[in-house]
Specification:
2 helices, elongated, single chain, 6-stranded mixed sheet, mainly beta
Length: about 475
């Protein structure tokens, strides 16, 4: 029993000692106040650096703390945690004011303790410029001005007195286009582009000068008029400038001229226009520098096809060659009185066409009508011509007995008759003209004795 009590007393003493030691260890393990450790520092940008965009800042500091950057006015620029290796990097949320700026870094621990690091002196420089129209160009009263600035900033074109003639906002790439809200007065014009970087910070670009002129105007033909394929355009424009009448869709110049001292111009077409609807607009420039365009004029170009050969009232061969004029590059079909297509052709750039009958025309009278189809798909019929395809000619004398075989003709037999009384008709398979027949017969009669041969012939009248 006594042994058991001694062991118990010893165990209790050991427990008391252990408890005391544990208490002392607990006191030693109480958390101490956090130590900021390494002083933060901006390493990029360096002293005297120049920014042209939002600032990108990097540096070093105590791992686990947060680095915050502020400008000289105490305005936050950006912040970022300092990583396990003691580095940080952050990008500004907005542009710095144009001109000199101070950037200061401060490191803050999780419990709020902060350490101020170094300060770097930097400069923010921004540019804005007008790219179009170029300096010295002629411009219209509603001229649009375009150029480059910082992305997403307000842009204005400002006159010498500070008055803004237009206001816009640049896009995500910094491009802008600024159109005056009111017409600009004619005469010399000087404007400068400006942009608002941040509140109270405005950057003004270089001033540029132009000359404002009145827009060129087509006065003839009038809008909506019907014209031929070689119209003459006339109107008014700035004196001494070069004027061109341009195709409304392609923008290609259809004709060019010089504007007179009185401000008028005349521009004739040298190349035939296509048949159909046409949109044109005038454009004027001086020495190729800039240009001012006028309003669009809509016209209807119409051309009527014409057969010029064979002539109406004349004669045509069975395989007739038909020639004429139509709209440039249009398709022309020549049809007879029954509406049957005789031949088709494609007009050239000058509107000339020609085709040969695909099947021989029968002897007798025929009506030939040209039908033109242009790019607009609208058919246009021209005036008909009336021709005669000869068969046998009244009054012709032919032998009743077989004639001596004549030498083979060296050319393809073609029956052609002139409208005049002295016209000739070539005989098939002989190549001998019919007006030569009486002479040939007379010569034969003389050679064979005339009287002996005469009873062998008789006259035949063709009805």
């Amino acid at each position: 029993m006594r042994t058991a009590l001694r062991n118990l007393r010893r165990a209790g003493a050991c427990l008391a000692v252990a408890t005391l030691l544990a208490s002392l260890a607990g006191v030693a393990a109480l958390p101490a106040a956090a130590d900021p450790g390494q002083v933060p520092a901006i390493t990029d940008p360096f002293e005297g650096a120049v920014f042209h965009d939002v600032p990108n800042i990097s540096g070093t500091g105590e791992p686990g703390t947060t680095a915050s950057i502020a400008d000289g006015n105490g305005t936050p620029v950006c912040s970022a945690p300092i990583d396990d290796f003691g580095y940080f990097q952050c990008t500004g949320t907005e542009l710095l004011p144009a001109g000199p700026n101070e950037l200061t870094v401060t490191a803050t621990t999780p419990d709020g303790a902060s350490t101020v690091g170094n300060t770097v002196q930097v400069t923010a420089e921004y540019s804005i410029q007008v790219g179009y129209p170029q300096a010295g160009a002629l411009v219209s009263a509603r001229q649009a001005f375009s150029g480059t600035a910082l992305p997403g900033v307000q842009v204005q074109m400002v006159a010498a007195g500070g008055t803004a003639v237009c206001t816009t906002v640049s896009d995500d790439w910094g491009d802008f286009q600024c159109i005056p809200s009111e017409a600009l007065p004619e005469g010399p014009l000087t404007l400068a582009p400006s942009m608002t970087v941040v509140a109270g910070s405005v950057v003004v670009g270089a001033a540029t000068s132009w000359t404002v002129i009145a827009d060129p105007v087509i006065t003839s033909p009038a809008n909506g008029a019907v014209v031929g394929d070689l119209p003459v355009f006339s109107g008014t424009a700035h004196p001494g400038t070069d004027i061109s009448i341009n195709h409304g869709r392609s923008g290609l110049a259809l004709c060019t001229a010089k504007v007179g001292a009185d401000g008028t111009f005349s521009c004739p077409m040298a190349r035939k226009l296509f048949v159909g609807s046409l949109e044109v607009f005038p454009e004027t420039s001086l020495d190729g520098v800039g240009s001012v365009m006028g309003t669009v004029t809509t016209l209807a170009v119409q051309v009527t096809p014409v057969i010029v050969r064979p002539a109406t009232g004349g004669f045509a061969a069975a395989l007739a060659v038909i020639e004429g004029t139509a709209g440039a590059f249009s398709t022309v079909a020549v049809v007879d009185g029954n509406g049957t297509t005789v031949c088709t052709a494609k007009a050239d750039a000058n509107g000339a066409f020609g085709c040969v009958a695909t099947a021989a025309l029968s002897a007798g009278k025929h009506t030939l009508t040209p039908v033109q189809t242009s790019f607009d798909g609208v058919p246009v019929r021209g005036a008909a011509v009336h021709v005669t395809v000869p068969g046998t000619v009244p009054g012709e004398v032919v032998p009743t007995t077989p004639a001596t075989t004549a030498p083979a003709a060296t050319q393809t037999p073609v029956a052609t008759v002139n409208a005049a009384g002295g016209a000739t008709q070539q005989l098939a398979n002989t190549g001998v003209a019919s007006t030569a027949l009486p002479v040939a017969v007379a010569a034969l009669l003389l050679l064979l004795g005339g009287a002996a041969l005469a009873p062998g012939f008789r006259r035949r009248t063709h009805g």
